[in-house]
Amino acid sequence: MKNTKKPSSRLFAVILAGGRGERFWPIGRASRPKQFVDLFGGKPLIRHAVDRLRGLVPPSRILVVTSRDLVDATREALPQLPPDQILGEPVGRDTAAACALASAWVAWRGRPGDTLCILTADHLIADTAEFRRVLADASAVCAARDVMGLIGINPTRPATGYGYVELGSPFSAAGLPKGFRRVARFVEKPNLGTAATYVASGRFVWNSGMFVWRAETFAAALRKFRPALAQAVECEIAPCFGTPALDGALDRVYPALEKISVDYAIMEKAPNLVAVRGDFGWDDVGAWPSAGAHLPHDSSGNAVRGLVEALAAKDNVFVNTQSGHVLAAMGVEGIVAIHTPDATLVCSRDAADGLKALVRSLSRRPDTAFSVG
Prior knowledge:
Layout: E1 11-17, H1 45-51, E2 62-67, H2 71-77, E3 86-89, H3 94-109, E4 115-120, E5 124-125, H4 128-144, E6 148-153, E7 164-170, E8 180-187, H5 192-201, E9 204-214, H6 215-225, H7 227-237, H8 246-253, H9 262-267, E10 273-278, E11 282-283, H10 288-292, E12 303-305, E13 308-311, E14 317-320, E15 327-330, E16 335-339, E17 344-348, H11 355-363
Parallel strand pairs: 1-2, 1-4, 2-3, 6-10, 12-14, 13-15, 14-16
Antiparallel strand pairs: 4-9, 5-11, 6-9, 7-8, 7-9, 8-10, 16-17
C-alpha cells in the first residue's frame, strides 16, 4: 500500500553574520568584526551561534549569510559547516535582502513545509536548552499554520536601545505549543519614560531580530510587500544556487536591491505575525559595557580580561590582549580601557555606545587607517 503520509517539517537555521567591527574596536575590526571576537567562553560569538543549535539543527541545515570579504574567515571559524553553506553578499543591503536570499536557499535545498529560523551571529544566550525549546515550538507553530513567528525577549529593564513589540490576543490551536500571541505593533527605540511604561505593562517584549517561518510563507509576504525584491531573488539569483554562476548573479543583482530591514519591509506590515516570549538569558552585547557583564570581575566591580593591574579603581571595563604588556589603571571609575598590540581605546562607559563615530573618524585619517581595518 502506498504511504501517503506527509513528511514532517524540518527546521533550517540561517545565521546573519554581517557587521563591520565598529562597536568593539579596537579588538573588532572591519576584517574581523564582532562575531569573531572570542572574549566569551574561549570561542568566537559565531561559533557560539552554531554550537547552541546542536541537537536541534544539524550542520547540513545551517546557512550563514555574511559579507563576501568575510567568507574565508567565517569558513575558518566554522569548519563543521560545508563551505557552500556560507554565502557572501557582494554588498550589504540590510536584512530584508539577506532574509530573502536565505529563504530562497532553504526553498531550494529543503522541501515544502520546512521551516527556517533567522538568527544572529553575535549574541550571547545563557540557557541554550530553553533557547532550543522556544525555537522548536516556534517551528511547530509556523509549520502547522500560515504564520511567521517572532521571538521576543522579556525586558529586564526599560532599555532605550532596543525596539519593542506589543503583544496582542492569544494565538493557539489544538495540538500546538502554547504561549504564542498575535503581534499588535512594533515600536522603535522609545525614550526612557515610554520604555518604563512598556515594561510595567507586561504587554511588550524586546525585538530580538530572531524570526521563524516557512520559506513559502515568507516568499508570499515578500511578493506582496516587496515585489521587486522578490522578483530579483526568485528569478535571477535562486536559479543559480548550486552552480558556479551564483557569484556572478549576486554581483549583477545585489547592488540594485533596496536597502531596508526585514522589520520595515515585511514584519511591520504582515497580518500573520505571531510572537513568543524568550526567557533564556539573551544579550546582544552591543557595546563594551554590556560585554563587560560577561567577563570576570574583581572585588571592585571591574570587568577584567588579560594582564591588568587596577588600584583604587571601580566599575570599569579593562581588556588587554597583548601578552607581556600590563594595562595599569588607578583612581578611575566608569571607564572602558581596551588595549591591543596596535591600538588603545579609553572612553567613559557612557560614551562607549558612540564608538562608531570615533572609528569612522579614524578611518578618514591615513596615518591611523591600519588600526581600524
